[in-house]
Write a structure and sequence with these properties.
Layout lengths: L4 E2 L1 H7 L2 H13 L11 E5 L2 E9 L3 E9 L11 E9 L5 E6 H22 L11 E5 L3 H13 L4 E5 L3 H13 L4 E3 L10 E4 L18 E4 L12 H5 L2 E4 L2 H7 L9 H7 L4 H5 L11 E4 L4 H14 L4
Parallel strand pairs: 1-6, 7-8, 7-10, 8-9, 10-11, 11-13, 12-13
Antiparallel strand pairs: 2-3, 3-4, 4-5, 5-6
Helix pairs in contact: 1-3, 1-10, 2-3, 2-10, 3-4, 3-10
Protein name: Ornithine cyclodeaminase
């Protein structure tokens, strides 16, 4: 028998934003430890790289095989493409395959907005807003889906988007308008007024002056991985409370953090990871921004893939 395959539409239909966020929260509450996640495996590919992301769990295990082609967006193609293989943990028998690109496009914003939601909930009462201004950097699929996820997770929020190519920004705005999500074109001049800043770009250099970020604002830098790539500058890192996906993964791949402080300094600081954040352990410093740094982790793929397998319509 051939393995069932979940195409992009099936993955998307089975994991709406509230469902995906809730599944990630539940996994962390039930004991998933980001510090035990398997390291991402890299290998060169023509014009880019291969990524393998294995993960194991009680009921399911799995591996995501991706290609990353940095030159693709300029050609109108996806930067990240791949497939996911879900495996039965008891027998190690393959159970299903699914579109790895769509899985990535869902689990990354779901993880980011889960983190943002809990960071906002930990804010001092005087710093909370019912209608936060959300500023998104990027105009690709991750920026588009971060806006969709933010609309679902942050009711009442107002949205603006910043991108290098005006035509892509307008296309994104039009796509979201057709879905009933109002977004305006923004610029770096909006940074001081933003309550939440989501960085979902392929930029390898900081997107804005970290000194412009408002006291109490939440910044999520999730568009890049690798110690030679950064979306935010050291000034923002040094003036912020910091939350990471996992401390080990951040030390391996979070270029937003390592230039600002050494690995030894981060080990001493011991920033909270997502499991601790969801458990309510974050105590925000009044008047400080909070930075969430994410690089993408295999356990998030596995949790989302299980949601798709158990609730989706397969071929």
């Amino acid at each position: 028998m051939s393995l069932p395959y979940f195409d992009a539409a099936a993955v998307r239909a089975a994991a709406p934003w509230p469902t995906a966020v809730a599944a990630l929260e539940r996994a962390l509450a039930d004991g998933v430890d980001p510090e035990l996640d398997s390291p991402r495996l890299f290998s060169p590919a023509p014009g880019g790289e291969f990524l393998l992301m294995p993960a194991q769990g009680v009921s399911y295990s799995g591996v995501k095989a991706l290609t990353v082609a940095p030159g693709n967006p300029a050609r109108g193609l996806e930067k990240i493409q791949g497939i996911y293989l879900l495996i039965d943990s008891d027998t190690l028998a393959p159970l299903a395959t699914m579109d790895g690109t769509e899985l990535t496009a869902i689990r990354t914003p779901a993880t980011t907005l889960m983190a943002v939601k809990h960071i906002l909930a930990a804010a001092p009462e005087r710093e909370t807003k019912e209608d936060p201004q959300v500023l998104v950097f990027g105009a690709g699929i991750q920026a588009l889906n971060h806006l969709r996820a933010a609309h679902a997770v942050l009711p009442g929020a107002r949205f603006a988007v910043v991108g290098q190519r005006p035509e892509r920004v307008q296309s994104l705005i039009g796509t979201l308008a057709a879905e009933g999500i109002e977004v305006r074109a923004g610029s770096t001049a909006d940074v001081p007024e933003a309550d939440v800043i989501l960085c979902a770009t392929s930029s390898r250099t900081p997107l804005f002056d970290g000194g412009m970020v408002a006291e109490g604002a939440v910044v999520a830098a999730v568009g890049q991985h690798g110690l030679d790539a950064r979306e935010v500058d050291a000034a923002l890192v040094l003036r912020s409370d910091v939350v990471v996906e996992g401390r080990a993964s951040a030390l391996r791949e979070a270029g937003d953090l390592i230039p600002a402080r050494s690995a030894e300094e981060w080990a001493s600081i011991h920033p909270l990871n997502l499991q601790e954040l969801v458990a309510g352990k974050l105590e925000r410093t009044p008047g400080k921004p909070c930075l969430y740094a994410g690089v993408g982790m295999a356990w998030e793929d596995l949790v989302t893939a299980a949601v798709v397998y158990e609730g989706g319509t397969r071929e």
